[in-house]
Each structure stands twice: as C-alpha cells, then as structure tokens.
Amino acid sequence: METTAWTQLQSVMNAQQARRPLARATLRRVAGFARPHRRRITWFVLLGVVTALLAVATPVLAGRVVDTIVSGGDEETVVRLALLIALIAVGEAALGLLARRLSATLGEGLILDLRTAVFDHVQRMPVAFFTRTRTGALVSRLNNDVIGAQRAFSNTLSGVVSNVVTLLLTLAVMLTLSWQITLLALLLLPVFVIPARRMGSRMARLQREAADHNAAMGTRMTERFSAPGATLIKLFGRPDEESAEFAARAARVRDIGVRTAMAQSAFITALTLVSALALALVYGLGGWFALRGTLEPGAVVALALLLTRLYAPLTALAGARVEIMSALVSFERVFEVLDLKPLIEEKPKPVEVPDGPVSVEFEDVRFGYPSADKVSLASLEEVASLDTRGGTEVLHGVSFRAEPGRTVALVGSSGAGKSTVAALLPRLYDADTGTVRIGGVDVRDLSARSLRETLGMVTQDGHLFHDSVRANLLLARPGATDDELWDVLRRSRLDTLVRALPDGLDTVVGERGYRLSGGERQRMTIARLLLARQRVVILDEATAHLDNTSEAAVQEALAEALEGRTAVVIAHRLSTVRAADLILVVEDGHIVERGTHDQLLATEGRYAELYRTQFREPAGAVEIDTAA
C-alpha cells in the first residue's frame, strides 16, 4: 500500500500543471507520431490486460488454498493450487519483462522520432532564430519535453487500460465474495485520494520552484563557466558576489528539498496508516462473518489481498486525466517548435549552380531584419512576450556585380550594412525585394547543397567546435585525406603549430576553439575554407585577429586560395583591399562610392577619408573599428 500511495502522489505532482481541456488538434498530431508504432502499442495494451487478469487471479487462488486447508482437503489440491500460483507468478514476471521491453522500445522510438523531427526542423531555421533563442531553452525541448511526451505512451496508455481491467475484475470478485466489506472498503477511498490531491498540489509547487532555481543556477553556471564568461568575472573581480548569489539559490533549493522530503514522509506515513486500517476492517469484519459461518475463511484472505489491488487502480485512474494532460503539454511544447515555420525554404525543384567560374550579382536589393515574432518563440527567449519591432530596412537598393574570378571589397563605417550584404549570399537571410544571383541564378532558386558546395565564408568569429583539429577541418570536405589536411594547414601557416600539439590532428581544440589563440582560430577557419575549394568566397574580416606578421602570411595563402575565384571581401584594414578589382563604400545601407583604390582616392570622398584616418594615426594609437 505504501507503494500505491507513493505512485499516486507522484502522478498528481506531475500532472498539476495540466488542468485544461483536451486539444483535439494535438491529439491528432500525437496519433500521427504514434501511427508507425501502432503494432507495438497494440501488443503493449494486450499485455497490460493479460497482466491485470493474472493479478486478480492470485488472491482468488490464495483464498482457495486457505479454504482447502480449513476444510481438511487433500494435500494434492493444495499443491496444485500452490503450483498454479507459482506459474502465475512466473507468467507475471515474464510478461512484466516483455511489457518493459515493449515499453522501452516504444518510448525510445518515440523519443527518436520527436528528437529527430525537432533537430531537423531547428537546423532549417534562419540565423535570426539562433540569435534570439536561449540555447538552454531549446535543448530542453529536445530533452525534458520529449521525454514528457514519451510518458504518454510508455506509462499512461498501458496504465489506463490495465487499471480499468484490474479495477473491474477486482470489484467484481470482491462483490461476489462480500458486497458489505467491498462497500465499506470503498468508503475509505476518499480518505486515501483527497490527501494525495492536496499534498500533490503542494509538492508540485515546491518542485516547480526548485526546478526554476535549478534552471537559473544551470544558466548561471553555463554562462560563468564558459571561457569568455569566466574571463569577464575575473576581470571585474566579483567572485565573492557571484559565489554568494549562487549559494543563496542553492540554499533555497536545499530548503525546498527538506520541506519536500518531510511532506513526502508525512503523506506516505498517513496513507500507509489508512491502508492498514482498511486491512484491519477486512480482517475484523471478514473474520466476524467467517466465525458466524456466513463467509469462508479463504474469502477473508482473498478480500484482504484484493484490497491491496483495488486502491492502486482506483487512485491511478483518479489522476489519469491530469496525467494525460501533462503529457499533452509536453507534446504541445514540442509541436510549438515544429510549427515555427522557417523563413528560408528550398524550392520543390531547385536548380544547380552552373559549372565553371561564376559571377555574384546584387540587383536593387532591399532588406530589413525580421522581427522576433516572425522567427522566434517567447518561451524559447524566456520572455513574457516577443518584441514586435523589426522589419526596418537596413539595405536600400544595393546593386553591384562581381565578375567571375574577380574580387569586390566592401568598406565603410561600423553598422553600415557590409556584413548584411555578405549574409544574403549564402541565404543566411533572404532579400525582401530585389535579387541576389550566383552564376546568373537567383540564390532562392538554388538547391542548398549546390549553394553550399559553391560558396564558402570566413566570418569574424572564427568559430570552432569542441572537437579535434581533424574534425573541424573535415566539416569542409569529409572525404579529405591527411595529406590534404596538412597541405591546407601549411598554406594557412598552421602546420608547425599543429605538429607541436600533443595529438597532432587529433588534438581537441576546446569549446569554441579557446585552446587556440584568436589568430590561430582564424587561420584554422581559413584552412577549412582552403580545403573546401569553393568557387565563391566571402571573407568577413578574415584577418581581423591577426598580428601583422600572421596577416602577411595568411594574405599570401588567401591570395593563392582566391586565385581564379570570385570573392567578396569585407575589410577593416584598407591596406588589405587595395588590390581589389572593385571597392564599394557602404554607408547607412547605401553604396555611396565605387571604384578601384586609386580612383576612390582621387575622388576625395568617404573612402579617402577612411584611408587618411587609418594611415595618419600616430604610432601606438588604437585603431577605430570600421567593420560592419
């Protein structure tokens, strides 16, 4: 009975948040995910029914054993009944293992389907989605909510069916044995269920509060334990304050844990007492009936055993609806992500980029970054409501053409729109109006694979995964050989460094590549670009983190890599774009000047002003970043 009480408490705690009407649309979608598993679900339910039948049979047989002994029956009957009880026990154990296997297979299969669907969908989301979403909240959808949805199949579904069958059979048998004792036992049910409801609600609040504190601590640790976060804390010298704030939340979780443990113990103790009183009623009243000759002694034993199997399904079914609601909440949170439509979609019949050197062309392109309500969810940003601001145009009629094999450079003030121009080429965003073409084909008509194979990009960030040097390079071309890897490392002036690492190519570079210096990370991304051998290259401040010596070395490698390729280069240091075939000066989303280096200097315009600012600074002065 103690186990029954604990099970009821847990189910009510888990289901308190889900008291709302059933959503038919959600049920239909759940059925769609369940359809591939319908055969396993059928067997799962049937096993639950058979297990329920066996559970009721054992108390009845135990009662017959007692009656046979009391009436002086033969030993053979007792042995046969005992063997039958043993066989039923073995059968229950075997069916339990089989049901557990089906439950695990069904539940894990559903988790696989849901996680894969969410993961694939999230990969299709635009960059704007990731710039707004909290990573932890998104990962939670792939973990906690998916597992919560899985419970609907592996626990609730079979539980409802088996509990209904167990309840009906148990009541039928108990009423047959003694309707008076059965009715009295049922009168004690509210004493068993009502405290579970009230205590479950209280403990659910405690668990939610603890979960909130744990989530806050987790977010804090994730931010503070990253290399940039830890550096920031050390620079501002606030370790004591950070420790005190963390300890305060941890102490709150501790206090909640103590209160929860005491509440659980008090509840279980009280309900165990109620269960013991119910058994006392059966033995007392049943014994009285047996002594008067109106009830067989075996029936008393059977009633006592059946009573232990009566409260469990009754209390479980009392909370079944809210358990189903709880599972549906998890499904809805998963579907919420799946229903967020990507702004960038591949056409049903995309085309390929033409062979050979290709041009890059912008024709009257206008663009404004989308508002949060178009690319994100309030629950993923952990805000009450989404910011509806956005859509303000940041590019105004941008037009230019980079001829095949030529280099176009974008320069200008910070925030002028240079990086935005670069982001439209690989379809990190799509233009609102106008056309972006590669090889004469609108990028919106190209297949994602063809676009990826044609165009490569090195950003200012120089991001690397927490993986080996080899794995980070092979992102560009999975089939590359070690000789090819060493070749691009040599051309990026990294081969000496990598050979000196403990495991060479297999050395793990750390989260975001923080085991390498900023310049080394950037050269690693350049090596990755060299390995990809794409025909169009975008360099967004590709040498921003390099010292003069490293920059000169990498510029040589880039000159080799860009030979015969079409390139769009965004540069802070104007010295790196002097040789560009065309230089575009971008200000406030407009191209205000265009020409070669010499032509632009001769016009004495914005380019000339930027050039003089950089090259007339006194020695040792800090450069002003003019990157977009």
Describe the structure in your own words.
By secondary structure, the chain is of the alpha/beta class. It folds into two domains: 2-338, Up-down Bundle (ABC transporter transmembrane region fold), CATH 1.20.1560.10; 360-615, 3-Layer(aba) Sandwich (Rossmann fold). 63% of the residues lie in helices and 9% in strands. It contains 24 helices and ten strands. The strands form two sheets. It has a six-stranded mixed β-sheet, with helices on both faces. A hairpin with a 2-residue loop joins strand 4 (433-438) and strand 5 (441-442). The chain is elongated, with a radius of gyration of 35 Å.
How would the blueprint of this fold be written?
Elements (H helix, E strand, L loop, with lengths): L1 H14 L8 H11 L3 H33 L4 H49 L3 H6 L2 H43 L1 H9 L1 H37 L1 H10 L2 H53 L5 H12 L2 H8 L1 H19 L21 E9 L3 H4 L2 H4 L11 E10 L4 E6 L5 H7 L8 E6 L2 E2 L5 H7 E4 L10 H6 L7 H10 L3 H6 L17 H15 L3 E5 L7 H15 L3 E5 L11 E6 L2 E6 L1 H7 L2 H10 L13
Parallel strand pairs: 3-8, 3-9, 6-7, 7-8
Antiparallel strand pairs: 1-2, 1-4, 4-5, 9-10
Helix pairs in contact: 1-8, 1-10, 1-12, 1-13, 3-4, 3-6, 3-11, 4-6, 6-7, 6-11, 6-12, 6-13, 8-10, 10-11, 19-21, 21-22, 23-24
Question: What is this structure, in a nutshell?
Answer:
The chain is 63% helix and 9% strand. It is an alpha/beta fold. The strands form two sheets. Strands 6-7-8-3-9-10 form a six-stranded mixed β-sheet, with helices on both faces. A four-stranded antiparallel β-sheet has the order 2-1-4-5, covered by helices on one side.
